[in-house]
Amino acid sequence: MPDVTVVLPCLNEAASLPGVLAAIPHGYTPLVVDNNSTDDTAAVARRHGAEVVVEPRPGYGSAVHAGVLAATTPIVAVIDADGSLDPRELPALVDELDHADLVIGRRRPVKGLRWPWHARLGTAAVCWRLRTRYGLLVHDIAPMRVARRQALLDLGVTDRRSGYPLELLVRAAQAGWRVVERDVTYGPRTGGRSKVSGSLRGSVHAALDFWRVIR
Ligand SMILES: Nc1nc2c(ncn2[C@@H]2O[C@H](COP(=O)(O)OP(=O)(O)OP(=O)(O)O)[C@@H](O)[C@H]2O)c(=O)[nH]1
Ligand SMILES: [Mg+2]
């Protein structure tokens, strides 16, 4: 059984967390990074058996980085805490680490999923750039990913906002990492409110962050 920490960056995800934590594979360690939530995220996480790390610096990348730093296992996984991705699909990604340095999920929407057109278009544009400029054969922006912890830290990703996963991909390409993409199921968030694609502010921030990394 590989030793894996599942980092869950959270900003007000108390509603979705119980279901997400219940789906963490047996033997994997859930680590919730609470990033200034104003709901019960931290208490709910503890009640459902997760370790909680508090990261006051705002931003998705801040939360992810704090989680990877706090993890003590050789392998780390990162997954959204909104219930849209299924932690039960993580072991299949971890298995691929035999022949890869970074294994990322490619979101395949469930039937009828509302996935805003600007989010799809943004993802497609960014991935086209990753393929043509960085030679990475990817079709999604690594919404769910697994890697070896120390190698990930050594890569030195600096973005602390929404650009984190993209910068990770760019640096992985530059470092000659073997990056493997695998289909994962993408459903609706199971509670709480959207911070990125479902919000104008979140979408504009994400687009600016993406552009900074990829231009
Ligand atoms: N720590 C932290 N996490 C964030 C921040 N913004 C988003 N997240 C987390 O990143 C993940 C993705 O954000 P979502 O709000 O689901 O964005 P989305 O997937 O575009 O939108 P939905 O369609 O509602 O799922 C979730 O687990 C959020 O809790 C942030 O500023 N800080
Ligand atoms: Mg989401």
Can you put this structure into words, describing what you see?
Helix 2 (41-47) links the parallel strand 2 (29-34) and strand 3. The model has no long low-confidence stretch (mean pLDDT 96). A seven-stranded mixed sheet has the order 3-2-1-4-6-5-7, with helices on both faces. The protein contains eight helices and seven strands, in the order E-H-E-H-E-H-E-H-E-H-E-H-H-E-H. The chain is α/β, with parallel strands linked by helices and 215 residues long.
Produce the secondary structure layout.
Blueprint: E1 4-10, H1 17-22, E2 29-34, H2 41-47, E3 51-54, H3 60-70, E4 75-78, H4 90-95, E5 102-109, H5 117-134, E6 145-148, H6 149-155, H7 164-174, E7 179-186, H8 200-214
Parallel strand pairs: 1-2, 1-4, 2-3, 5-7
Antiparallel strand pairs: 4-6, 5-6
Helix pairs in contact: 5-8
The structure holds guanosine-5'-triphosphate and magnesium ion.
Instruction: Identify the bound ligands.
Output: guanosine-5'-triphosphate, magnesium ion
Termini separation: 40 Å
Helix content: 25-40%
Query: What strand line-up does the widest sheet have?
Result: 3-2-1-4-6-5-7
Q: How many strand elements?
A: 7
